[in-house]
Structure formats: structure tokens, C-alpha cells
Amino acid sequence: MPTTAPNALSDVTASDSTLRRFLHGLPGVDAVGLEARAASLGTRSIKTTAKAYAIDLAISMVDLTTLEGADTPGKVRALGAKAVRPDPTDRTAPATAAVCVYPDMVATAKEAVAGSTVKVASVATAFPAGRAPIAVKLADVREAVAAGADEIDMVIDRGAFLAGNYMKVYDEITAVKEACGASARLKVIFETGELSTYDNIRRASWLGMLAGADFIKTSTGKVAVNATPANTLLMLEAVRDFRAQTGVQVGVKPAGGIRTSKDAVKFLVLVNETAGEDWLDNHWFRFGASSLLNDLLMQRQKLATGRYSGPDYVTVD
Amino acid sequence: MSDRLNVLKTYKLYVGGKFPRSESGRVYEVTDAKGKWLANAPLSSRKDARDAVVAARKAFGGWSGATAYNRGQILYRVAEMLEGRRDQYVREVAEAEGLSKSKAAEQVDAAIDRWVWYAGWTDKIAQVVGGGNPVAGPFFNLSSPEPTGVVAVLAPQESSFLGLVSVVAPVIATGNTAVVVASEKSPLPALSLGEVLATSDLPGGVVNILSGRTAEIAAPLAAHQDVNAIDLAGADEVLAKELEIAAADNLKRVLRPQPVDNWTATPGTDRMTAFLETKTVWHPTGSLGASGSAY
Question: Does residue A179 sit in helix, strand or coil?
């Protein structure tokens, strides 16, 4: 590991070879230990008031997402209304953090959440494959920012990353970061399901943070393996270590496959035990999800009334 | 004298097509009519009840959408499987209810016949309770029965097998899915029924069987917002009243406990129609010509 001086990492990105030396010099991941640690933290029992706190916190961290070819302006408006007031029967339910849509829906989404704390996030850079020329990707980002996106979710070029062409990935992220300007926060999606190994996920995390990501995000939700407790734990370790070395705090967003309140609470335990309380805030931790919100709301109703709720009492998305 | 060790059976719940232990990890001792230990049965908690409702809800779309003919075939298959394990049920019923072998055999045979009887009803109930309703206007309307949804069934406490079959079969024959709370004192025939259902092409989750304290499991089921109806056959008077009050909150259909002296008597269609809704569709009949109706 490099020394702890704040600028110690600046020479890492000086050239392709220094970057490669740094990323390959990161300690290897103990896969068995990582999974066991994630599994053991998942066994914590969170009850009563702690559970109520966790559910409200989780609701406030949801990036309510719709990324379908069939998205209509009506659906995006409905999603926006739900993000602002997730449970219309209970005004104490917090708003979600953001809605996440395709770039062409940003303006519609922006209108739908106007006047609330809900942000609009847009995927960009030829999501979800990321297989497009850099000029197209940057144009995609600029359009989304111009339409009013508060956050940009970009995908990295997994092909370049897996081929070992780290500098290309780095340059792309810095270019996108620049296109985001000062107004939009950048989330970098690694698509961990396509990176094959935990070592690669650790390298990608550091690469993304070095390039200026405000958030690192597990997946697009479009492949077989999405966010898992283990890969999220690994990324939480990375942001913790990165802050210890540089003083810069980076957020984490697991996305895809988180559907139940129980799962969400497990992730919150991981955050608290790994990165620490500083990340227990929707500025630094998000859930990329759609169906999760309904389950959180049903659990919330159960806590409030003592009766198990059902899907008839939440919206159909 | 054989040297073989006894292979004791671990009775488990039947939820979502699988055989889990109780989420709580608890069991209770089940004894025969004379107080001799028979087995340990899972002592279900309210979380088991919740999981069972989730499984039943998930299965509802497929089961209610299956053709009546297909449901009938599957229910008949259940009867076939029961027939193959007749001796096991005779033994379990004899032990549970303190009956002689021949009396127990009568109960089991009646139960198997009842499955067959309800299997036949699946594609006939619509003709009996549905119908075309001529109305005074240029319209015609048609009524057809639709399943109510997820039904919580408290199985009768005394008749551990025939009683159980008599309350479960009519619920699922019409396309509902069920969460069944077995007889508290004699749950073993019910838990064994799960093994038959699992091998009868009945989709997982259509019937879910829980054992334990009826009052403990029934309370969250009666209050559950995603349960559409409840059959209180296994509840005593005090419990039934409590549950009916809890069930009123989301307007569940409630079938109150009715005294049954003889489960072998032909049941009639009441238990099926208790958990049916009527869907009525209005049809315009087209223009009325000079000579009257166009249909």
C-alpha cells in the first residue's frame, strides 16, 4: 500500500504502467473469508425500534428505478409521485433519495419531482452495455445533465477493463466526470457480475475512485448476478480505505436483486460495520431498486398496525 | 429379533412445496389418544404463518388460472396417491383418534372418496352456481364463480384426517389457495398429507400446512391484510369470536364453525360456495329489430 500522504496517489495515475502496478499491487481478496464475513453480518437480528429506524433509512436511500424499453412518460410521472410520497396513506413515510431513469426521460422525471427533495438520476454512456464510441457516451451524459439530471450513473467499459486496458477506463471516467460538471454527481457502475473475480472488483473500485467517482455502484440490474452482500462488502472496504488514505469520501450503491426489507437491512448492517456511521445517509449510500420499496412500505405498515400487510395496499408499478 | 435401529420420522411443515422446520425452531410433543408419545411436530410461529401466506399468494395466479379440468385431474391424482399410502394413514388416524383399525380405515376411505368427489366438482360448480341472467333491457348478463383468493383454514380439532380433507379439498377445488392450520392435538395425518400433495402435481404453495397452537397461528392469519377468507372450523367459540373481529378489518369472508357430528355424511356444495365470488358480465344484445331481440 502507498503511504498515507493525501497526494500519495496522484503519481499512481501518471501512466499506464504505474496504474497497472498499483492496481495489481492491491492485496488479493480472500474470497472465502469475504463471503463468510458478509454472511455472518447478515445474521444480525434487527428488531422493533432499530428495525423501524432501518426501514425508514432504507426508504430514504432508495433510487427508485425504471429502466425499461417500454418506459412511458406516464410511468415516469407515476414513479416520481411515488418517490415523493411513497405511502400516500401515511405522511410520516420519508421520500426516497432519487428516481433513476433513461436520459430521454430526465425532463419528465424532473417535472414530476419538482419542489421535493427527490433527485433525478440518469443512466448514461450507452447503458447498460457501454459499447459505444466515447463521443457518443459523452454526448449522452451532456444531454442528461442539460435536461437537469442531478446524478449520472455511468457504466465502465468492461471489455477494456478485462483486457487490462486500465488507462482507457480511467480516461473515460475522468472525461465523463468533466462532462458532469459541478452540478451532477457521478456514479460509476462496474457490473460486478461481469468482472469474474473479487480481485477485479477491488481493482475496479480503486480505479473508479482514483478517476473521481462520487459513488461506486455494483451493477446495472441487467445481468444474472447483481448486487450481493459479498461484493458490496468489498466495495465498502474500498471506500473506507480510500477515505483513510486520501480524505475523500465516496458513496456506494448496490443495485439489482435487492427485493426484501430483510435484504436491505442486511446491507445497512454491512455499511455500519464496514464503512461506518458516516455512510448511513442517503448522500453516501443508495439502493438501486424498484420492487424493494413496496416491501419496505409493507413492513412499515406492519410495524405501525401490528398486522401483516399485503400487495393490495401498495401501488402496482 | 432384528438389530435394526428405529428410523423415526421428523414431521415437518409443508410450505411453498417444501418441507421446512418451523422458523422458530420449536417443536411440541404429539401423543396418541392414551398419552403415549408419537412424534415431535413443529410448533409454528406467526412468521411461519406469514411465509405460508406469501407462498399461497404466489401460487394463486397459476392455480386459479388453471383450467377447471386440469384442477380436477390434479385433485384426482391426490386421491390416487392417498390410496397408495392408505395403510400409513390408517395407522396414523388410529393412533391419533384412538380408533380401532377398522374404524380408522373407514375414516381414511371416506377421506379418499371425498377427494374424488371434490375432484369431480371442479368443472361443474360453475354450471350450478353461475348462470345467464335475463334482464329487463337490451342487455344480457352472465354470472360466473371466481375463487376468493388466499383462504386460511383452521382444520377441525377432532377429526384429524377426514375432517381435514373435508375442509381443504373444497377450498382448493374452486381455485383458491390455502394456509391450513392442522389439528393441534393430532397434527400428524395433516403433516403426512403434505407429502402426498407434494407428489401429486399440485403446484407448490396451493396448500400450505402448519402445525402448532391453533390460537397462536390463527391470530396473525385472521389479521393478515393479504388473506381473503378464513374458515374457522377448528376454533372454539371464544377464539372464533376473536378471530372474526380481527378478520373484519380487511373484510375477509368468514366461515363460522358449524357443529359436524358425522364427517362421513355427504357435504353438499356449501363449503365450496363459501369461498367463491360472483363475477357478472353485462352483454349488449345488439340492436333490437322490429321483431324483437337480435340474439
Answer: helix
What's the pTM value of the predicted model, to 2 decimals?
Answer: 0.89
CATH number at residue A219: 3.20.20.70
* Residues on chain A touching B226 (C-beta within 8 angstroms): 308-312
Report the residue of chain B nearest A312, measured CA to CA.
B226
Query: Would residue A276 count as lying in a domain?
Result: yes
- The structural domain count of chain B equals 1
CATH of the domain at B108: 3.40.605.10
A311 with B57: Cβ contact below 8 A: yes
B288 φ, ψ (degrees, to nearest 5): -95, 115
- pLDDT tens-place string over residues B232-286: 999 999 999 999 999 999 999 999 999 888 899 999 999 999 999 999 999 877 6
Give the structural domain span for B124: 37-284
Residue B65 CB contacts under 8 Å (≥ 6 apart), including other chains: none
What is each CA distance from B213 to A314, B42, B177, B187, in whole angstroms? 31, 10, 22, 10
With respect to residue A6, please indicate whether it lies within any of the assigned structural domains. Answer: no
- Separation CA B274–CA A231 (nearest Å): 51
Answer for the pair A29, A202: CB distance below 8 angstroms, yes or no. yes
Mean pLDDT across B50-58: 97
Concatenated DSSP letters of chain B = ---PPP-------BBTTB-PPPTT--EEEEE-TTS-EEEEEE---HHHHHHHHHHHHHHHHHHHHS-HHHHHHHHHHHHHHHHHTHHHHHHHHHHHHT--HHHHHHHHHHHHHHHHHHHHHTTTHHHHH-EEEE-SSSEEEEEEEEE-SEEEEE--SS-TTHHHHHHHHHHHHTT-EEEEEPPSS--HHHHHHHHHHHTTTPPTTSEEEE-S-HHHHHHHHHH-TT--EEE-TT--HHHHHHHHHHHGGGT-EEE-----S-TTS---SHHHHTTEEEEEEEEE----BTTB---
Q: Which residue of A has its CA nearest to B220?
A: A307
Cis peptide before B267 (omega within 30 of 0): no
Which is the catalytic residue, given A82, A253, A263, A295?
Answer: A253
- Provide the percentage of residues in chain B whose pLDDT is more than 90: 87
Q: Please tell me the predicted confidence (pLDDT) of residue B134.
A: 84
Interface of A with B in 251-310 (CB under 8 A): 301, 306-310
Count of domains forming chain A: 1
Question: Does the residue B4 lie in any domain?
Answer: no
Q: Is the pLDDT of residue A134 over 80?
A: yes
